[in-house]
Amino acid sequence: MLAGHETTAALLGNTLYTALSQREIWAALGAHPELAGTAVDEFIRHDGPAFGLYRRTTRAIALGDVTMPQGATVFIAYFAGNTDPAQFPDPERLDILRHNAASHVTFGHGIHYCIGAPLARLELRVVLEELPQAYPHLRLAADQSFTPVASFLLRAYESLVIVLD
Ligand code: HEM
């Protein structure tokens, strides 16, 4: 449930928040649905649903000034890599034309790379192709608070109220 559902549900909410907060992006996707293909990875970079995950050290290991003992539980906040300005200039800005957006680390890295990444990308691409065309006036409801879920694993809002008309 966490791997396949909570992640994509949170990604969808985060993406809608960003896209509906910047109407020019919503309008551009509505007018040019072919942009969805490249926009998908930029939203996944910018609005990914997880901060990081745990690992346990199999041996003592030095990282910078810190030596972690064997058997330590380590939280790797790999999402920070998505906002590394050396990789992604002006990283806080959503740029649906960003040429290297797909080199984000939202799906992890190495042998445990997310097995569901193609499905997650497909789900978001369908949303970005269809929703802005079908609902050009979709908007965030006024008078709502955007409360983040109290979690250091999940990047999501408690709720997001969207108006369809
Ligand atoms: C935006 C959505 C998603 C995100 C951000 C995401 C993120 C991740 C990350 C970071 C990992 C690596 C975990 C690690 O290194 O220990 C992972 C692994 C995994 N993901 Fe996803 N995931 C998403 C969607 C999905 C979906 C839709 C499925 C299944 C339908 C899925 C199934 C899995 C599985 C089974 C693994 C374990 C792979 C392994 O250990 O070899 N994920 N995911």
Question: What's the tally of helices?
Answer: 4
Query: What is the rounded Rg?
Result: 17 Å
Overall mean pLDDT: 96
Overall number of strands: 6
Distance between the termini: 32 Å
Corresponding CATH superfamily: Cytochrome P450
Could you give the order of strands across the largest sheet?
1-4
Determine the fraction of residues in helical runs and give it as a percent range: 25-40%
Largest β sheet strand count, sense and barrel closure: 2 strands, antiparallel
Based on secondary structure, the structural category is alpha+beta
Whole-number count of domains: 1
CATH class descriptor: Mainly Alpha
CATH second-level architecture? Orthogonal Bundle
The CATH topology is Cytochrome p450
Describe what this molecule looks like in 3D:
The chain is an alpha+beta fold and 165 residues long. Helices cover 36% and strands 11% of the residues. The protein is built from 4 helices and 6 strands. It has a two-stranded antiparallel ribbon with strand order 1-4. A two-stranded antiparallel sheet has the order 2-3. A two-stranded antiparallel sheet has the order 5-6. Strand 2 and strand 3 form a beta hairpin. The chain is elongated. The two termini are 32 Å apart. Bound molecules: protoporphyrin IX containing FE. Protoporphyrin IX containing FE binds next to helix 1 and helix 4.
